C-alpha cells in the first residue's frame, strides 16, 4: 500500500516549483506552517550533500479542527507533509502523505471520511503542480 501521493514534474527551477506547490496548497485551503530544508540541514548536521529537498508542513485548519475535536492525540500526525525534491536525474518530484493510510490505524470510523476528504485535496495539489 502506497503511503504517499507522488508526481514527477520534470526538470524546472526548484524555487519556482516550491511557490507553485504553496499556491496549490492555498487553493485547497492549506497554509504552510513549517518548512524544513533537508539539503541545508543534512549539510549542517552531517556534512552530507543532498540535492534540493524541502518538506512543507501543510495544514487545513478546518479539517485539523475536526479531527482534533474527535481525538486530540491526532496532533502527533499533524501537519500534513508535502515534500519537493530534486531527483538524481534532475527531475523534480512532489509528494504528499496519504492521510487515509496515516489515519487508518486509529479505529475510529468518524475519522475516515475526514482523511478521505484531505486526501482528495492533497491529491489535487499534487496533480495541479506541473
Describe the structure.
With 130 residues, this protein is α+β, with helices and mostly antiparallel strands. The protein has a single domain, classed as TATA-Binding Protein. A five-stranded antiparallel beta sheet has the order 1-5-4-3-2. Strand 4 and strand 5 form a beta hairpin. The two termini are 25 Å apart. The model has no long low-confidence stretch (mean pLDDT 95). It holds the Pfam family DUF302. InterPro entries: DUF302, TT1751-like_sf, UCP021774.
Strand order of the largest sheet: 1-5-4-3-2
Percent range of helical residues:
40-55%
Number of domains: 1
Instruction: Please give the count of helices.
Output: 5
Q: Note the run of SSEs as H and E.
A: EHEHEHEEHH
Outline the fold blueprint.
Blueprint: E1 4-10, H1 14-27, E2 31-37, H2 38-46, E3 53-59, H3 61-70, E4 80-86, E5 92-97, H4 99-102, H5 112-128
Antiparallel strand pairs: 1-5, 2-3, 3-4, 4-5
Helix pairs in contact: 1-5
Question: What's this model, at a glance?
Answer:
The protein is of the alpha+beta class and 130 residues long. The chain is built from five helices and five strands; from the N terminus they run βαβαβαββαα.
Features:
5 helices, 130 residues, TATA-Binding Protein, alpha+beta, 26% strand, 5-stranded antiparallel sheet, single chain
Amino acid at each position: 500500500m502506497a503511503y504517499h501521493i507522488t508526481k514527477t514534474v520534470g526538470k524546472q527551477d526548484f524555487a519556482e516549483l516550491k511557490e507553485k506547490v504553496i499556491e496549490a496548497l492555498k487553493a485547497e485551503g492549506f497554509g504552510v506552517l513549517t518548512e524544513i530544508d533537508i539539503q541545508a540541514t543534512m549539510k549542517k548536521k552531517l556534512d552530507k550533500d543532498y540535492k534540493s529537498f524541502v518538506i512543507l508542513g501543510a495544514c487545513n485548519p478546518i479539517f485539523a479542527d475536526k479531527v482534533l475535536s474527535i481525538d486530540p492525540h491526532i496532533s502527533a500526525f499533524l501537519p500534513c507533509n508535502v515534500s519537493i525534491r530534486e531527483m538524481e536525474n534532475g527531475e523534480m518530484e512532489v509528494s504528499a502523505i496519504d492521510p487515509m493510510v496515516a489515519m487508518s490505524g486509529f479505529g475510529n470510523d468518524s475519522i475516515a471520511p475526514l482523511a478521505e476528504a484531505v486526501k482528495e485535496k492533497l491529491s489535487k495539489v499534487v496533480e495541479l503542480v506541473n
